[in-house]
What does this fold into?
Amino acid sequence: MTEVRLIASGLLFPEGPIAMSDGSVLLLEIKRGTLSRVAPDGTVSVVAECGGGPNGAAIGPDGAVYVCNNGGFEWLDIGGRMVPGHQPADYIGGRIQRVTADGAVTDLYTEVDGRGLRGPNDLVFDAHGGFYFTDLGKRRERETDRGGLYYALPDGSRIAEIAHPLTEPNGVGLAPDGSRVYVAETSTGRVWYWDVAGPGLLRRTGRGPAGAALLHGFDGYQLLDSLAVDGAGNVCVATLGTGAISVLSPEGELLEVVAVPEHDFHVTNICFGGPDLRTAYVTSSGRGLLYAVRWPRPGLALQHQA
It folds into this structure.
C-alpha cells in the first residue's frame, strides 16, 4: 500500500511541481496563470503572475525559475473536473519565461527560427546549463499543431529545434548521466528517447519520429503527461485515466504502476524531494490537488534543485 498524503486542494489546474529544500513546493496553476508556492502546511501563495497558461517549470543555474507557458486554454468542466480544451480567443502565444525571486516575469523566448512557439509544456536543465523543452502545440476546432523538442540557453542567446515533428510531446527528462533525453507523447501513449551527443545535440537512435527510439508503448488507449527520472534511471510517467505513475526501466520494462491515489484519474506530474529524495510530489490537475507520496526508491536530484 502506497503512503499518500494530501498536501493542498483548491488549486487551479496545478502542474510543474518543484520540491524546495525548505519543504515547500513551487508549482504552476495553469488556469490561474500563476507561479505559486505551497507551504508544508498546505497554504498557497502567489509568487508571480505569468499570464497565459504556465505549464512546466525548473530552476536554472542563476536561481531563477524558468517557465514553459502554453499561451492559455479554453476550460471545460467535465464531471466536476477542470479539463483544458482548445486554443482560446485570448491566446497570448507560447513562450519561455524567466521568473525571479521578487516575482518579476520576463519573456525569454517566443519563437524559434522565425516560427512562434505554440504550447511549451515541460523543461529540464542539463549539466551544461542549457535546457530541453517540449512544445505540445495547440488544438483548434478542426486542426492541431505538430509538436517538437527544443534546446535553449537561459541567457536568451540560443534556441534550436532539435526534434520535429512529434505528436503532442509532453513530459521531458534526462538520464542520470545526461546520456539520454526522454519524451512522453500524450495521445500516442509512447515514451521515446534519443542518445545525447552533446548539449542540445541528438544522435539518431532509432526509427521513430525524428530518429527517436521507442522506450515503451502502452497497451490500449493510454494518455501520458509529464515525467521524472528516479535515481536508478527509471522513467516515472504520469498516466492519465489510470490515475497513476507508471515506472519504466531504462530498458523499457514496465516495472510497476503506483496509484496516486486510487481512482484519481487526472494525475499529471511528479517531482522528487525531501532529505532522502523519497518523497514524490504529485499533481492531480483536474481536481486541483497536490499529494505527497512515499516513494519506494530515491528520486533523482535535478540540476540546480534548491
Remarks:
- The radius of gyration is 17 Å.
